[in-house]
Design goal:
This protein has 6 helices and 5 strands. By secondary structure, the chain is of the alpha/beta class. The chain has a 5-stranded mixed β-sheet with strand order 1-2-5-3-4, sandwiched between helices. Helix 4 runs antiparallel to helix 5.
């Protein structure tokens, strides 16, 4: 279930190797994996999705987010992926929440308005209100 956040990014729960062709056909140019390998039993390894993505001509980046939370290098890496993308990006994790949160943090790092980010997240079904202080802090540093 892919949820469009804005024209540059959509987020999704765990994808499969078989989903990659449909992701490509939907116009995505890159996949970002925000899920650490072995987070749960039976999870598809990131390397399998990487191989399928690259075979389909999609960029693939792993920025795993654990339950420890977000770090500045992860936020910067996501900002770099978004800046380098030549089309829409699909980011995924277990439910899509970490991916949406990381997108918002990366956008705030680049100066995006917290109210707009929270509204876009809500439009995709994600509540970003808890991130507002960090979004504001990152924007102030931009």
């Amino acid at each position: 279930m892919i949820r469009k956040v804005d024209d540059s990014i959509s987020v999704a729960p765990q994808i499969s190797v078989e989903d990659v062709a449909a992701i490509k056909a939907a116009g995505f140019t890159a996949i970002v994996n925000n899920r650490p390998d072995d987070e749960e039993a039976g999870q598809i390894p990131g390397d399998a999705i990487r191989a399928a993505a690259e075979a389909a001509g999609l960029r693939y980046t792993a920025i795993p987010i654990t339950h420890a939370g977000f770090s500045y290098p992860q936020i910067a890496a996501m900002a770099d992926v978004l800046a380098a993308a030549d089309g829409p990006v699909l980011a995924f994790c277990r439910s899509g929440t970490r991916s949406c949160n990381l997108w918002a943090l990366a956008q705030a790092k680049n100066g995006a308005d917290a109210d707009e980010l929270v509204a876009k997240g809500a439009g995709a079904g994600y509540n970003l209100d808890g991130l507002r202080p960090l979004l504001d802090q990152l924007k102030a540093q931009a």
